[in-house]
Specification:
Shape: globular
Mean pLDDT: 91
Low-confidence stretches: none
Number of strands: 5
Strand order of the largest sheet: 1-5-4-3-2
Largest sheet: 5 strands, mixed
Radius of gyration: 12 Å
Helix content: 25-40%
């Protein structure tokens, strides 16, 4: 699935990285706890979260994630957008809740760890 397709499915707004929407991604995870992302997430390309602070960008970078989707209409500040741009990440924002967003992506073929 491309990041563009994620944007379309979630009716998301592009906050950063518009030129990178053609990236192909195969896995995703949803969490507001960055400690869980660090502990349990392996090889995920997309992070869905409602947490809006710079630690999200840093965690995603450590895990080589290409895209962060902020759920529930959350919006990062300009410093976070600049940090993500420096790291070559796409930032999206959707009004859907976490559960709904994850379900929509799963129903359209995006999977979590080990294809589960």
């Amino acid at each position: 699935m491309t990041v563009q397709k994620i944007k379309e499915l979630l009716e998301a707004q592009v906050l950063c990285g518009e030129s990178l929407l053609g990236r192909e991604v195969h896995t995703a995870c949803g969490s507001d706890m960055m400690s869980d992302v660090l502990a349990f997430v392996k090889e995920q390309a997309v992070l869905l979260t409602g947490l809006v602070n710079p630690q999200v960008i840093r965690t995603a970078e450590m895990m080589d994630m290409q895209c962060i989707v902020f759920v529930r209409g959350k919006q990062p500040d300009e410093d976070m957008k600049a940090l993500a741009a420096e790291r070559g990440m796409v930032l999206l924002s959707t009004d859907y809740e976490m559960f709904t967003s994850c379900g929509m992506l799963y129903a359209n073929g995006l999977r979590g760890r080990s294809g589960a």
